[in-house]
Write a structure and sequence with these properties.
Layout lengths: L23 E2 L9 H7 L9 H18 L5 E6 L2 H12 L5 E6 L2 H12 L3 E6 L8 H11 L3 E5 L1 E2 L4 E2 L5 H7 L3 E5 L18 E3 L12 E6 L1 H7 L13 H7 L16 H17 L1 H21 L16 E5 L6 H12 L1 E2 L1 E2 L8 E5 L7 H17 L6
Parallel strand pairs: 1-12, 3-4, 3-5, 5-8, 8-9
Antiparallel strand pairs: 2-10, 6-7, 9-10, 11-14, 13-14
Helix pairs in contact: 1-9, 2-9, 10-12, 11-12
The structure holds 4'-deoxy-4'-aminopyridoxal-5'-phosphate (PMP).
4'-deoxy-4'-aminopyridoxal-5'-phosphate (PMP) binds next to helix 3.
């Protein structure tokens, strides 16, 4: 027996073909990926440092600038999911010991607070139960009190189904010399956001929601105020992979003549992301926002006709991409969702983090945002309500 003979045999599962079912992804993401984007991701790959790839990355940058409504040069896509953008934003703009203020009204604020805590920031939070939101007065008072270098707010709170107002907060942050960081992972393309006009200093999103690309890339943009702060640090950011000094060079944003190797970008995912941004550009932001609002309103009506209660009472505060339903009395939400998956091959989900046990969530995003899909979701829900009724002993 040679020393090189394997002792671990090939696993039986690997000798069977890949099986991935067709599913209606009507949860909070990932959303179904349309054939055109799948095809883009399936093209033969090229080198991540080939000039053609730089062109594709430049296109992605322009596509993100449009989607974010920003002229920021420092606009890139992370090689990683939404969390990569969350960590990139915090790691680069905050130094250990600095004060950070996080608005928590669902899981995303909780996550950012933990990320900031882990890198040694002094974290302060303002907390509301899921569905709650913050007035500009409350925000200004907290900023004046804690003097943070960074204030975080979630625009599309997907765990609660709330779309938080953003107007005026950028001005407050500027007045108090604080950077304004906004999460639009669940809202980009579904609800209006204007990075430059709303004076947002750092904005990020994700690929797998209304953009309909596969999960795994995340647009992010920094304005000059944010660049001033992050490129004048005393200590290097804790992450090498997410260091914007390197990423800005990789994305051709640092004005240097050559891009040098930092990490190998996910070429296929960038192809898909480019295609998804192209579809948004062709369709137009206003049309995309209008469509999400229209289909969401249609869904609200159908849910109310089924006797269900929307979790966010104020229509204008609802996130058009992810609708939250209050769990109907007498029902086990897990049983309803399991029934819908089993009998309708359809994903809807429960709550997340603090909203677990409070809501069920239906996401109709981008390509999935059609009245016909709302009808299918309503039909599946009606069927589940009929068949999962808990006996009230
Ligand atoms: N923020 C929000 C608002 C989200 O909805 C999500 C994804 N559900 C994330 C951040 C995290 O993104 P990812 O799962 O791609 O890391």
């Amino acid at each position: 027996r040679s020393m090189s003979s394997v002792t671990i045999p090939p696993p039986a599962c690997m000798l069977r073909p890949l099986e991935a079912p067709y599913r209606y992804l009507f949860g909070p993401g990932p959303s179904n990926v349309p054939p055109r984007i799948l095809a883009a991701g399936g093209r033969p790959i090229i080198g991540h440092l080939h000039p053609e790839m730089y062109e594709i990355m430049n296109d992605i940058k322009r596509g993100i600038q449009y989607a974010f409504q920003t002229e920021n040069n420092m606009t890139i896509a992370m090689s990683g999911s939404g969390h990569a953008a969350m960590e990139c934003a915090v790691f680069n703009t905050v130094e250990p010991g600095e004060s950070v203020l996080v608005a928590i009204n669902g899981i995303w604020g909780e996550r950012v607070a933990e990320i900031a805590e882990r890198m040694g920031a002094s974290v302060h939070t303002m907390v509301k139960t899921p569905g709650g939101y913050f007035t500009n007065k409350e925000i200004e008072e907290a900023i004046a009190k804690y003097k943070p270098v960074l204030f975080f707010l979630t625009h599309g709170e997907s765990s609660a189904g709330l779309c938080h107002p953003v107007d005026g907060i950028g001005d407050i942050c500027r007045k108090h010399n604080c950077l304004f960081l906004v999460d639009t992972v669940a809202s980009l393309g579904a609800a209006p956001i204007f990075m430059d006009k709303q004076k947002i200093d750092i904005l990020y999103s994700g690929s797998q929601k209304a953009l309909n690309a596969p999960p795994g890339t995340a647009p992010i943009s920094f304005n000059d105020r944010a660049c001033q702060k992050m490129f004048n640090r005393k200590v290097k950011p804790v992450s090498y992979l997410f260091d914007m000094t390197h990423l800005s060079n990789y994305w051709g944003c640092d004005g240097k003549p050559a891009r040098v190797y930092h990490h190998t970008g996910p070429v296929s995912s960038f192809f898909a992301l480019r295609e998804s941004l192209a579809i948004l550009a062709e369709k137009g932001l206003e049309e995309s926002w209008r469509k999400h609002k229209e289909v969401a309103a249609y869904l609200y009506k159908g849910l109310e006709d089924l006797g269900l209660k929307l979790f966010i009472p104020d229509k204008d505060m609802r996130l058009p991409s992810v609708t939250t339903i209050a769990i109907p009395e007498g029902y086990d939400w897990r049983a309803l969702l399991t029934y819908i998956m089993k009998h309708h091959q359809m994903e809807m989900t429960g709550g997340l983090g603090p909203s677990i046990g409070m809501v069920m969530r239906i996401g109709l995003m981008g390509y999935n945002c059609e009245k016909a899909n709302a009808d299918m979701a309503l039909h599946a829900l009606a069927d589940a309500l009929k068949n999962c009724k808990k006996s009230k002993a």
